[in-house]
Amino acid sequence: MLLEYSVEKPLNREPPLKDLVQDFITKTTTAYDRNHGPLPHINGDTHTVRIDGLVKNSVNLSMSQLRNDFPQHQVISALQCAGNRRHTMRTELKEVDGIDWNDGAVCNCTWSGPLLCDVLSRIGLTMEGDAHVAFSCHMTDCQEDRYYGSSISLARCMDPEMKVILALDMNGAPLTINHGFPLRIVIPGIAGARWTKWLDRITIQDGESSNFYMQRDYKILPPEIDTRKKADDYWHKAKPLQMMPVNSAICHPTTGDTIFLDKLTNGELVIAGYALPKGDDGPVVKVEISTDQGKTWDESRILYPKPEELCKPGATEKYKWAWAIWQHKLPAEKTKKIDKSTRIWSRATDKAGNIQKVEDIKWNFRGVGYNGFGEIKNLTIIDTHDLSRRAGNMKIGNGYKS
């Protein structure tokens, strides 16, 4: 089997933020890549997923069986790396332990395949209630373990409303190698660390996955745990990160940009970004902007999902795990007042009322689950008309105007 990249140098990339918010459904080629090892090139015609553990009979299912023997379902869901926006935590709060992600380790796509609950119901379980479903990929070694694994509760997997899908397709086409071909688990509302790619084993069991990435990573440790030694002594006490918090990011313009007033329509600075609900509490219902560090907030316009779409029956369920793409037109008078000291913030509110708040911005050793206000700063505003006027009034030498 061909392995692309390596354990030492896995593929980890995020797109330019401006590209990220061009579409409500993220293009497959734009979606970020997060890996802990190489990309395995798997033969989809021969690949099977083994389902074992607390089931009546262990089975090996082919991709053809999953596609043809079970009803197919589709869900729109954001996929977000647990470390998305880690760079801001690192630079605004304190150094963290983890690779550097800006605000682009997130995407919003359609995912299709059979519901896991349909597959498990047909196989038959030997227990119910407080159990777990572990998802594994043994195709390649990882940086910290011999395989990649994750788990969530059996109750979530068996609830058809939660749309836990054995995904064969992404955005209407078979998964690409980068995104888990031929099979990955899709768990809407849950951190991307649990969406195991290149899935080859599903185990129903009493406890959580014992994998490194479930037990010794992707957990929010308390602030006093600030070294690897302290973390080693604490991992077993902390719960694995599952649901991600409400969040937003400003994708355009970006920190450090130069803005020319004469190129703006009506002098208005157009600000755009994305917003995400907490866990299952979507959709996002409001995004606001502040240019005075939170003293006042002005509501932005949510472009997608479109307002008329959100009014349709079933819209809440359809978009509860999707992101929102938003836009704000900053009035000319406020745009002119921007200087190097100005910080522009965004905050999101979801349907359940979860909102980004200052008091929720806390540091943690691994830099996961960060949801501070979206922010841009250090903008340079250039008024070319004002510059021309000033140049015309300048005196050179013996009082002659330039």
From TrEMBL:
One of its GO terms (molecular function) is heme binding. SUPFAM superfamilies: E set domains (SSF81296), Oxidoreductase molybdopterin-binding domain (SSF56524). InterPro entries: Ig_E-set, MoCF_OxRdtse_dimer, Mopterin_OxRdtase_euk, OxRdtase_Mopterin-bd_dom, OxRdtase_Mopterin-bd_sf. It holds the Pfam family Oxidored_molyb. Its cofactor is Mo-molybdopterin. The keyword Repressor does not apply. Residues 241-372 form the Moybdenum cofactor oxidoreductase dimerisation domain. This is Molybdopterin binding oxidoreductase. Keywords: Metal-binding, Molybdenum, Oxidoreductase. GO terms for biological process: sulfur compound metabolic process. Residues 36-213 form the Oxidoreductase molybdopterin-binding domain. GO terms for cellular component: mitochondrion.
